[in-house]
Amino acid sequence: MLCLLKQDSTREFSPPWLSFDLSAQAPLFRNVSLLVYLENLGNRSYEKVNRIYQPGLTFRLGLSASF
């Protein structure tokens, strides 16, 4: 008896769509800057590669210093 099971294909992906990101850098002192990143402004989850999903709206803050 032959039993065929549906297996996940490595070629199954979510439909592509466009993602908008925003980044800014604001100087605080002479050698120190504040970094702000807003990623995926559309707040839509999507599959970047097979079975690896990217979150909706994400924000990051950081500091940049040069000596």
Report on the structure:
- The chain is mainly beta.
- It has a domain at 22-65.
- Helices cover 0% and strands 43% of the residues.
- The protein contains no helices and five strands.
- It has strands at residues 22-27, 32-39, 46-49, 52-54, 58-65.
- The strands form two sheets. Strands 1-2-5 form a three-stranded antiparallel beta sheet, with no helix packed on it.
- Strand 3 and strand 4 form a beta hairpin.
- The N and C termini lie far apart (72 Å).
Strand content: 35-45%
| Largest sheet: number of strands, sense, barrel closure | 3 strands, antiparallel
Poorly predicted regions are none
The H-and-E topology, N to C, reads as EEEEE
- What is the residue-averaged pLDDT? 78
Class inferred from helices and paired strands: mainly beta
Strand order of the largest sheet: 1-2-5
- Report the count of strand segments: 5
Q: How many alpha or pi helices? A: 0
Report helical residue fraction: under 10%
End-to-end gap: 72 Å
Query: What gross morphology would you assign?
Result: elongated
- Overall radius of gyration: 20 Å
